[in-house]
Amino acid sequence: MVWQTLKRWYHMLGSPRYFYTFSSRVLPWLTPIAVLTLAAGLVWGLAFAPSDYQQGNSYRIIFIHVPASSGALMGYMALGVSGLVAVVWRMKMAEVMLKAIAPFGAGLAAISLVTGALWGKPTWGTYWQWDARMTSMLILLFMYVGVIALQAVIRDPRQAARAAGLLAMVGVINVVIVKYSVEWVQTLHQGSTLKMFGESTIDPAMKYPLLLSMLGLWLLYAVNVLLRARTEVMWRERRSKWVNKLVKEGDR
Amino acid sequence: MNAFRAALGRELLVLWRSPAEIINPLFFFVMVISLFPLAISPKPELLATVAPGVLWVAALLAVMLSLDGLFRRDQESGVLDMLLTAPVMPVVPVLAKLLAHWLLTGLPLVLISPLLGHMLQLPDAALGTVMLSLLLGTPALTIVGAIGAALTVGLNRGGILLAVLVLPLYIPVLIFGAGAVSAAAGGANVDGILAILGALLALTISLGPLAVSAGLKISSGN
């Protein structure tokens, strides 16, 4: 039963036209929720959460740093999955997603690197260290750039998306290997304090605002992807009747 | 298997008849390496410290640059479309092409590397590891780079784009390759690192040619 529903969803959302009307219905309430969640998480974390007993207030950058890093990683995983669907099943919406997911993810990777560097200076005494996590994030940024660059130079949008999809699939394997190979180098970055399973080693007063801002940023990422995908769908289907009708009616 | 042998023979012959494609990567390798003592300093102890990284980065760039035109001539002459529509799986001619390319451009780099390692003041005990690490690493670099070459085959300005696509994918091989040479220069046991390099090679040999032929199909619009 669940499988049937999922299958129906897959086929329905695979249709650009259905996706357009679906996202028109989702965006009006998803956007405010995303903005409010992120704002609440950030205000709570930056202004009200207790300061750290060792790092004082400088630790508060994690309320931006951790959501950005996790968003960048998840974004690349999503690129890889879209790539698989686009290359193997040649689904149009997966091709659209390949174009829609990359820019925001690249921005998040950059934010993660910059905030990490700013925090590293007072805490570790250096802006940059070739440590496992930082190097992986830098490579992740490079691979986002590769996916975007490849799509920019191939003129045919379908071919561009499939090429980028193949690159993203190879890239996902690479992220994993890079992660483990740079751990050979002495690691300076602390381990994760948020754990999916078992006890987190972060104080609850810091954990909840962190989780809230992570959720908010992920939702904002989703909003951004939907918006970009809508523009891309409109462009790709610009010769179809339904898009022309929408344009004539001035409907957004 | 017959198709593989025929394709291998063809590729070797085509490459053999354009010696510049074989010689240029080799000279590039030698020249880049000779820049470093001039740029950094000819002090033996300093050179020996940076030698593993210099050797590996230079070899990596030589392999990558040699790949830029890997499929271009075949695409322009229409051979590529023939290969993709031939009644064998495209992986077979692709694998033959990669093997031929590596034999004539990658293997010479491996063979000359001990000489360059010696010029960079690496201890003699590390020279075997230099060769062995490059022997395991350059085929992996060739295959991974060929994925990028396949995706950019139809584009005129392939060169720089190829580097942007491929260099991040080269990093694991670079880490373990240069790591093995450094460890050997320090007198440590390198069996473990070489084994990981071998594992990376096995991974790229088994999955890489599939990705290359998928890339060629995408680029040729099939």
TrEMBL record, chain A:
Subcellular location field: Cell inner membrane; Membrane
Transmembrane segments: 26-49, 61-89, 101-120, 132-154, 166-188, 208-229
Record-annotated Cytochrome c assembly protein domain positions: 20-189
InterPro entries linked to this entry: Cyt_c_assembly (IPR002541), Cyt_c_biogenesis_CcmC (IPR003557), Cyt_c_biogenesis_CcsA/CcmC (IPR045062)
Record-linked Pfam families: Cytochrom_C_asm (PF01578)
Membrane topology reported for the UniProt record: Multi-pass membrane protein
Keywords: Cell inner membrane, Cell membrane, Cytochrome c-type biogenesis, Membrane, Transmembrane, Transmembrane helix, Transport
Cross-referenced PANTHER family: CYTOCHROME B_B6 PROTEIN-RELATED (PTHR30071:SF1), HEME EXPORTER PROTEIN C (PTHR30071)
Role description: Required for the export of heme to the periplasm for the biogenesis of c-type cytochromes.
Similarity comment text for this entry: Belongs to the CcmC/CycZ/HelC family.
Protein name: Heme exporter protein C
Record organism: Alcanivorax jadensis T9
UniProtKB/TrEMBL annotation, chain B:
Subcellular location: Cell inner membrane
Record flagged with keyword Membrane: yes
Main location: membrane
Keywords, sorted A to Z: Cell inner membrane, Cell membrane, Cytochrome c-type biogenesis, Membrane, Transmembrane, Transmembrane helix, Transport
Transmembrane stretches, start-end: 21-40, 46-67, 125-153, 160-181, 193-216
Bilayer topology annotation: Multi-pass membrane protein
Keyword Protease: no
Protein role: Required for the export of heme to the periplasm for the biogenesis of c-type cytochromes.
Family that this chain belongs to: Belongs to the CcmB/CycW/HelB family.
PANTHER family: CYTOCHROME C BIOGENESIS B-RELATED, HEME EXPORTER PROTEIN B
Protein name: Heme exporter protein B
